[in-house]
Amino acid sequence: MADGLDEITLLKDEVSSTRRVGNESISRIIGNYWLFTFAVLLIISLLTKQTPLLLISMLFFFTGGVARLWDRYCLSRIEYRRRLRPNRAFIGDEVYLEIELTNRKPLPLPWVRIDDELPLEIELLKGRTSPSHREKRMFLNDFLSLGWYHRITRRYPLRCTQRGLFHFGPTSIRSGDIFGIFSREMETFKMNYLMVYPKIVSLEKLGIPSKQAFGEIRTRQHIFEDPVLTLGIRDYQTGDSLKRIHWKATARHGKLQTKIFEPTTTTDMSIFLDVRTIKPSLWGSRPDLFELAIIAAASISSYGISAGYRTGLYVNQRKQIPDVPIRIPPGQHKDQLMQILEALAQVLPFETMPIDRLVRNESQNLAWGSTMVVITAMPTDALLSTLFNMRKGGRRVVLILIGGTRTAVSGESLTVYNIREDIPWRDMETLPITGV
Amino acid sequence: MPAFLNRVANFDWTTGVISPLTVILMEVFWIYPWLVWSREMFSFNYPYTPLNLGSLIFLIGVPFLVSRFLQGSRKSLRWIKLAIVMVTILIVLRVEYGGGISLFSGQWFIYLGRLIRDSFTIFQPVIPAMVVAIYLSWRGIRMGYSNLFFTDIYRSFLLGMTALILLIIVWTTSMGTGTIENLTSTVGLQVAGFFFFGLIALALGNLQSIRQRMIRDKAAPLSNRRWVIILFGIIGGIVVLAGGVASIFSPGFITMITQAIGYFFQALTRVIHYVLIPLEYLAGGLVYVVQWLLSLIRGATPPKPYEPPDFFDPGELEALEYQPVSVDIVLILKWVFFAIIVIAVIYLLFKSLSRLRFTREAAEVEEISESLWSWPGFIEDLFMFFHSLFDRWRPKRKKLLQVSSAPGWYTENDIQNIKNIREIYRHLLWDASEHGIHHRSYETPYEFAGRLGITLPDGSVPMNELTDIYVNVRYGEINAGDTKSEQANSLWKTLRRLILGLKKTR
Prior knowledge:
The structure holds 2 protein chains of 2 kinds. Chain A is an alpha+beta fold. Chain A is built from 10 helices and 21 strands. Chain A has a 6-stranded antiparallel beta sheet. In chain A, strands 18-17-16-19-20-21 form a 6-stranded mixed beta sheet, with helices on both faces. A 4-stranded antiparallel beta sheet of chain A has the order 2-4-9-6, with no helix packed on it. In chain A, strand 7 and strand 8 form a beta hairpin. In chain A, helix 2 crosses helix 3, helix 3 runs antiparallel to helix 4 and helix 9 runs parallel beside helix 10. Chain B is an all-alpha fold. Chain B contains 18 helices and 1 strand. Chain B is extended, with a radius of gyration of 33 Å. Chain B starts with a helix and ends in a 6-residue tail after the last helix. In chain B, about 30% of the residues are buried. Chains A and B meet through helix 3, helix 4, strand 5, strand 8 and strand 9 of A and helix 7, helix 8, helix 9, strand 1 and helix 13 of B. Strand 9 of chain A pairs antiparallel with strand 1 of chain B, so a sheet runs across the interface.
């Protein structure tokens, strides 16, 4: 994921050409008629031998010349850089936005104005902002003065108040001469991304008993085998699956040989997150329920990995970067939790397919002994029906209801937990990441 | 009281004082030469201009302050303001045209009336003085009501410049070319002063406009030390350079400037002399005490009683008492006054900025400032600049640059505005090779960029960016647009400057 972000940052690194902006009527006199006016004054002064007029013409010439010098070169050999340190954080963390402007030429810049577009969801702790015409965006306004061969770096502290993937940029840079006759502007389209992970809280605080809530690991030991780890071979016995026959060994021995797999001590836990929070066919979302569902998914994932489950995540939504379905198969790799958190950070409240269909599709690829944890705020009949069928088929299914208002779910056949809507999740502290 | 002090401490001197003051001085410095012209034109019966510089500043300054700080729509307030403005005009006229009448005597009004009446037969200086007084009062009121935005100042600047040009033409046509030296010596410095203050006013107005467009926060910093250095450096440079060029054509102008400088240093020497007198007393006293102590130790006769130096020399006093105030001294006084104003402007500007700097350090974001200056880089940039200037008149060699094969060498003329990214990269390899960083045949562009970054830490960022662009073009077969080409060219120029700073290996 980290590579993916950086790659996109580079691909979008575009700088526009500079263009003249500002008051045209003012720049016209010195801009368009500058040399002409100077020449007329000079000729008159020489003809009439008037030194004061010559002085005026010289002053006019130098003023116009200086203004035009800045007009031409003010934005050349300017380097602009924006950095986020770090570019990943949890809700409530502080990060730094660094803005660096370098002037690599002998011409000093009396003024440079930088308008950097930032997400409104991030709290800027220092610095001045102005509203943007775009929704949920604002401008960070910087006003600098650079000498020759000079670099200025400004560090703005930010507080991450909301989960999400936020982009910083584009940026417009404007400069000009000291008198305000000419000014030029250029834009950089380079984006930087800040990923804010959801909170991870203890399951007890969410109202879920964590002790064996998702199935006992100990009792299932040695029942399942890992098909990747082959322990050895033995002679074929009636009833052995054809898939387990080792064909090369069979050819060598001249009789059927069956593979023996190592028994596995871990079980899988697949978390299915439903992003829908209002009735189907309606468009919209209930942000509090949605965030609570994501926090539940993050917390269960963290618990699962630390408890020894091979944990995976499936969401009926697509990632923002890259644009692929959110589908992380169960695993116990050390980066598994970070992958899940990064996926959860990008989740938006708009479904790409109904959750029941996602569960049906993905269940075909899951190991037989895996636990399916379905988190939803809107348990539809179709979903419940799918889960009952799964349960009947021998799978372990856990349903977590966000909001907990539905009573139609029978707890006899499914394990159901309710997470109340009024849980003060904003005030809860994020647990340290374990099992990574 | 603390609230008042707080308000004073947070007062924005640049916007509230310096910017209006520079606009006022700009206005004064184009009006004053017109008064000089009226003096020369109508040969008034006394040798002074109808109004002096101080009066002009007072006439525009008081209405400005009145309309700026007494704001309101009440009718009574309007009458009060009008009364203050009228009183200001009368005070100025009373000071300038006293006629030897005692200060608070009503006879002066009769004298003024007589002067106006006499103007119908012999033109009196009081008429241009009154016209200018009314105009300046009106300007002061207008300025007080306006925000002194850039466009207002720009309009005033153009008006002043046009008025000065017109004055010179009118002067020449009305009095002939025989008065050129007179004109130069009288209005030359006023022209310089007009441009000096006018350009400062424009710069301040520009900065204020930018700030107000950007943020509506009154406490926002207006400027900083770097900005002020650039401001005075540029404007001072323009005025001095233009004056220097103009003086080449006018010996009178040089004489006038050297005279003005001479007067200034004479006055300065005298001031230093008077400042040193107390020290002379002190030194004399100390010598006497030491002599007296030595005489006590030796048992010799005590020294003669201490006689302090005679400060009031009767001859000098006599000369001072009876010597009439010459025109030269008046001129010196005027320019000293002018210099004091300039120094005051600079002092206030620096003071306000240093205050802003300290408050910003406490409240503003963390800022790191680095200098990237180096002599080789600067000299290289100068060469590049002059090459680009002269290249306009040289025959174009762009056709040669279209050749796609790698150059074994290239000249400085070849390197301007190359659009082909692959060619830029080849030039980069050539430059690096010349300075000891050879590209190895098995190296990928990124490996080479990493190695170059070790030798040139400052160049690692632009090198990485250039490498990315090159790799996209070379291996991704992406057709880079003009923007990318310009960016690559700019990056390469930066890198080139850094590479050329290395020691050449062959």
